[in-house]
Amino acid sequence: LYKEVFGTEPRGFWPPEGSVSQAIIPLLREEKIKWIATDEGILWESLNNENVSRDKLLYQAFSAYADDKNISIIFRDVGISNAISFRYSGMPAKKAVMDIMSTLKNIKNNAHFYKKTALVSIILDGENPWPYFSEGGKLFLSEMYRQISENKDFGMVTVSRYLENDTKTKKIDNLFSGSWIDRNFNKWTGSPQKKRAWKYLKKAKEELVKVGWPNPEALEELYIAEGSDWFWWYDDFGSELNFIFDELYRIHLSNIYRLIDKPVPYYLKMPVPAGPAVNKLVSGETLLSMARVTKILIVASEAVPFAKTGGLADVTTSLAKALLSLGRDVRIVLPCYTAVRNNKTDLKKELSRVKNVFATGDEEFDVYCSSINGVPAYFIHNEKYFAREELYGTEKGDYSDNALRFGFFSQAVLSSLKHLDFVPDVIHCNDWQTALIPFYLNFYLKKQDDTYQNTKSLFSIHNMAYQGVFDRKIMKNLNIPDHFFNMNDLEFYGKLNFMKSGILYSDAVSTVSFRYAEEIMTPEYGAGLDGLLMTKKESLYGIPNGADYSIWSPETDIFIKTKFNSKTLEKKLDCKKELIDYARLKIPLGAPLLGCITRLVEQKGMDLVADIMGKVISLGCGIVILGKGTDHYNKLFSALSKKYAGKLYLCSAFNDELAHKIEAGCDIFLMPSRYEPCGLNQMYSIKYGTIPVVRATGGLDDAIRDFDEDREAANGFKFAPATSMALYEAVKRAVELFNKDKKAWKKLMISAMSYNYSWDKSAKQYLTLYRKIMTG
């Protein structure tokens, strides 16, 4: 194009963003480029800021060397260039040009002093300043060129012409790598989001190289995506324009895949993740290790084996066990539900008729105790609040007095501490049921008893969707003064919000995956508290739940037919055959077998699974589902199991043994959740060599590496939009690899099984956070 317009090959140029490095010199010389230009800041860095006059050094040409290659290089005058870009647009044209001429005369006089001719390079973005000038810069440019051309002391010259007449150039042995902005590349590469965008570009280019560069349209899309402007905008989101840039960038990369007949990767269907918006924990820091945390009280509304409705119960006990193994005095406390009293675990009454000192009335409670794997467990007993068949409510809805029940529980936990002779360093609260504890700790207990002045609190969010929102009238019964009912404290759209208490008054907030910690600061996932969480982001942390490998491991699992590991994968077929027989499926042993253990609800993406059931079965798959949910989905999947009898098996009753058989016997595991704070089954699955297909959200996105994104480190498949088509495409990718490339599938299984998501790792992160809280 240049030759078409000017009739000759280009001999030099300003590289994109003035970006230069030692490495580009041989490449440019191969293309017969004789000179380049960049910012004067690169000159000072290249010469290690030599103590030489700027005027003496800047206004000349240099030669930069790399091995036996060299190239001429000039450096722009940043003062004049930036004045045109940012200052002169607000001045009358003649006054602005007068300022330039004055600057040029000073440069000329200094050059005369040094007995040399000065080469002044004025270089700026051609498109940026002119909309801000009168008449688009016409008056300014005309006046500038007129005055320079009419002045006998000045002359305009091309760089090539200058170099022909001045062959004495100063040598630069080590050209500094950088650009015109801050003398580095951080504007384009300096953040996780920018690095992710580059990674996407690199992957697309690699796919194009594999097919041999045959498609000029695909090449054009690549060239467009390589433009520096895309990366300029990343990490600067906030306006509609920024999001448009992100979408256009991903469209160009997606077009490359389409034009070479390759599937578009899942990650190009969602905005390039910003990040990290939350803090990362680093173990072993000197100051943190000095903060001795020995006593930890974990307060939760459920814990296995005593009471369970969801994953929180597993997390409570597993974390406590892991902290105990790290030598900490850790204890659990939860309500003494009917389920606890009916549990086979021995209960002993520890305390009787303890007064709830934070209540408005004369309420009392008993404290029972037991232990699980050496961890002491305490149970707050009160017939009025906890002698019920269920934990939170019945099929008809939540108990109407849940605010009173768990407000009382929070008060009783703190009231019991002195009687138990236990002064915790950290009280670790979990979800809305315990969220009032930081409030009572700060505004009551610490004011009444100096013993607990150094006790800190951590509030963990396991699911933002459940916040404990109640009528404000309940505040008096909870002994919460009216002045706390305002938007900066506990008020939430005219109601009382328990979770706000945990977020506002705890010393730190955590959630159960790094990605979910980022997500809950957005309107899509924050459930109305995203703004509050943004203000607390300096004390917001993401710590993933761990997997309890003492229970979930194919090498020790008591429920599976044959034990195996990554070196004996052929034995997994025994487990697969057992599961096929158990489910009475009519599929060959070599057919792909899919599993799903979940609640049958929309949040878990089960509407998407139902939508694609027929298409997945048409791929030759068998499917085993364990779970129940809402009446609508229970009936829907019951009907599907009858329609696809022999291909689809549904078990609606909880069956722990079957859960283990599914993890061990299936080839692929489905987790298409619309949101998933952490998730556990994806971590169980990979340990059994069962490859997860997950939606890229929350803990699923943290734990799973997509096969097409990084084949060496892959452990599953991901999709982005919460649509049935996106789920089907991800399942199809997995099934096609399973059917067509057994070697690659085995490698994927081995890679997946190598991942370690043990609770020991997570517990150490919690311990680091506890220490961080203690150091204030």
Task: Write out key terms for the chains shown.
776 residues, 4 domains, 7-stranded beta/alpha barrel, Rossmann fold, 15% strand, 6-stranded parallel sheet, alpha/beta
Brief digest:
The protein contains 32 helices and 25 strands. The chain has 776 residues and is an alpha/beta fold. It has four domains: 2-172, Alpha-Beta Barrel (7-stranded beta/alpha barrel), CATH 3.20.110; 186-269, no CATH class; 292-514, Glycogen Phosphorylase B (Rossmann fold); 569-757, 3-Layer(aba) Sandwich (Rossmann fold).
Question: What can you tell me about this protein's structure?
Answer:
The structure is a single chain. 42% of the residues lie in helices and 15% in strands. It has 776 residues and is an alpha/beta fold. The protein has four domains: 171 residues, Alpha-Beta Barrel (7-stranded beta/alpha barrel); 84 residues, no CATH class; 223 residues, Glycogen Phosphorylase B (Rossmann fold, 3-Layer(aba) Sandwich), CATH 3.40.50; 189 residues, Rossmann fold (3-Layer(aba) Sandwich). The strands form five sheets. Strands 8-9-10-7-6-13-14-18-19 form a nine-stranded mixed β-sheet, with helices on both faces. A hairpin with a 2-residue loop joins strand 3 and strand 4. Helix 10 runs antiparallel to helix 11, helix 10 packs parallel to helix 13 and helix 25 runs parallel beside helix 26.
